[in-house]
# Entry
Amino acid sequence: MNRRKFISGFGFFASGVMAGCSPSQMFTRSVDQTTTGSIGTGIRPQIGVDAGVTNSASMYGEVFDGGFQLPAIPYENMEYRFRRQRLPNKLNLPAKTVLVDTQQKYAYYALSSEEVIRYGVGVGKAGFEWSGVAVVGYKKQWPIWTPPVEMIERKPELAKYSGGMPGSPENPLGARSLYLFQNGRDTLYRLHGSPEWQSIGQSMSSGCIRFLNQDIIDLFNRVETGTQVVVR
# Structure
């Protein structure tokens, strides 16, 4: 598959993002700057599937999941804009749609026509970028990671994982993985967690979209098989 191929035809996108609006220009409000339920009222909103998640400390604390322990993320050391936030849907994304903006290093999930959840992400480095329209073909908790043949050729030390690396906090796919399909076929691209929190906001992956583990768990719990994902 041509990793640089751009699949056109996502019409809803044209009226918002393609008109020249930048997400960083449109969104100025952030969750931790509010004080007390919903966008526009000054009330601190829920920003996790769990109603108790309303700030960075509750989002990025230690997690026990599937028999594994995920460490707390030192979110104070991250750029604030890459923390999960609940914001107005000024991109006009249809509800339950995912958009990945590889330039801004953001992923959005539309809660409704009014609001989105925004996550910071890491993206593919030069030569490994991918963009297009896909759907979530399936999703996995604590996925097995199998390095592609071409990756093993570049890094022979990965040959020991040619049969698959079991899920664990050290696994490059992290705690969750969403598998992107086009026309019923696996694109080999994923939205997945990562143990490397420092990679969020960077271009350093082999094309897949990286999330903080706590964030991909949140997104995993929101999306369903068949959810549309636009990567641009």
